[in-house]
Specification:
The chain has eight helices and nine strands. It has helices spanning 5-76, 129-140, 145-159, 173-176, 211-215, 239-245, 252-260, 270-278, and strands at residues 90-94, 97-105, 110-111, 219-220, 229-230, 295-296, 301-310, 313-324, 327-335. The strands form three sheets. A five-stranded antiparallel sheet has the order 1-2-7-8-9, with helices on one face. The longest helix has 72 residues, at 5-76. It is elongated. The termini are far apart.
Length: 340
């Protein structure tokens, strides 16, 4: 028995209803997806806006740090921990969070770029004072002769302009091109202290010297070839650094006493420190007067850390500040954690 016209129309209506439901479901699915994408786009735009604002807040914190340094120099011409810039964890409230500023004086570290005058052909008697002072620092930190050579010789080869190895532990192109992956030594100044992780003896491998970990907190890489210490920034923990400048010829007890007796607002001048040091008759003949220009009561380089929390955005900015005639300038910026 064949179905009648009424049955066919009912089936057609059923098929049409199913088609309508499928279209509605498809439209609903597309609408939900478009809505989700729109919400995601809105959140991404908000995050970009917040991060962009955090970036400008970071530069504002950097500018404020520079003003604090300039203010200290304008009022005193000296740098010491009693000044406003040295207050740690300085916080400023902002819309949706805060800015934290920390300023580190880099006048109390050993500038490795002072070794830049080294050449492999130098005889031990002609080696730059800075190299002898670095080795003295290593000795003050408990380094044995082999440990000192295992760090100082690769550093010499990394910084000098030639491709000749120096000593038993020296490392030049041949050593570094055998590493995985292979690379070449800089044969020039360090741009960042993080480069030490590439230097033989400092690398995280079988050649790494245990002395490297003890030495690293005393080191820095500044944009000049001078080794100068701010006497007002040195504390008891930096005593090995001060002792190394005199190549161990001045008893550490004498240097410790001078730091302990240092006025609350620091030495007025390097001459003030020198007069106190040379007043000790037992040191006559032990003090090398050529060290005197390396001692100061001010600093030319600072490291500024700015951390910004702005709603959901977090930004960490490290700025390296150079001082010239009382004015500051930024010569390097780094975003995120600093491996130094």
């Amino acid at each position: 028995m064949k179905p009648g016209p009424t049955t066919n129309r009912q089936r057609q209506r059923g098929v049409a209803l199913i088609m309508v439901l499928l279209v509605v479901a498809l439209i609903s699915l597309v609408t939900v997806q478009l809505g989700s994408q729109l919400q995601l786009s809105i959140r991404q735009a908000a995050n970009r806006e917040q991060y962009q604002q955090a970036y400008w807040y970071g530069l504002g914190g950097e500018r404020l740090a520079r003003q604090l340094i300039e203010s200290a120099l304008q009022h005193d011409r000296r740098i010491h921990p009693g000044q406003a810039w040295a207050r740690p964890g300085r916080r400023y409230p902002i819309d949706g969070g805060s800015i934290r500023i920390d300023i580190r004086d880099q006048g109390s570290c050993f500038n490795l770029n002072a070794l830049g005058r080294i050449t492999t052909t130098d005889s031990p008697g002609k080696q730059p004072r800075a190299l002898r002072q670095l080795r003295s620092l290593m000795a003050a930190l408990g380094g044995e002769a082999d440990e000192i050579a295992a760090l100082s010789e690769p550093l010499q080869d990394w910084l000098d302009a030639d491709t000749l190895t120096s000593g038993r532990y020296g490392a030049e192109d041949l050593y570094y091109t055998r590493q995985q992956p292979p690379y070449l030594p800089a044969n020039g100044p360090l741009v960042s202290l993080s480069e030490l992780s590439l230097v033989r003896g400092f690398r995280r491998d079988a050649d790494r010297s245990p002395l490297a970990d003890r030495l690293r907190p005393y080191l820095c890489a500044l944009p000049d070839s001078e080794l100068r210490l701010n006497l007002n920034s040195l504390d008891a923990t930096r005593l090995p650094l001060l002792s190394s400048v005199f190549e161990g010829q001045v008893p550490r007890a004498s240097l410790q006493r001078l730091l302990r007796e240092r006025p609350a607002d620091g030495f007025r001048s390097a001459d003030d420190f020198w007069l106190r040091l040379t007043a000790d008759e037992t040191l006559v003949g032990k003090i090398d007067a050529q060290v005197r220009p390396q001692l100061r009561v001010s600093s030319d380089h600072f490291l500024v850390r700015v951390e910004v929390d702005h709603y959901q955005a977090n930004l960490v900015l490290y700025s390296r500040i150079d001082v010239n005639n009382g004015s500051t300038s930024v010569y390097q910026r780094h975003y995120g954690d600093l491996n130094e």
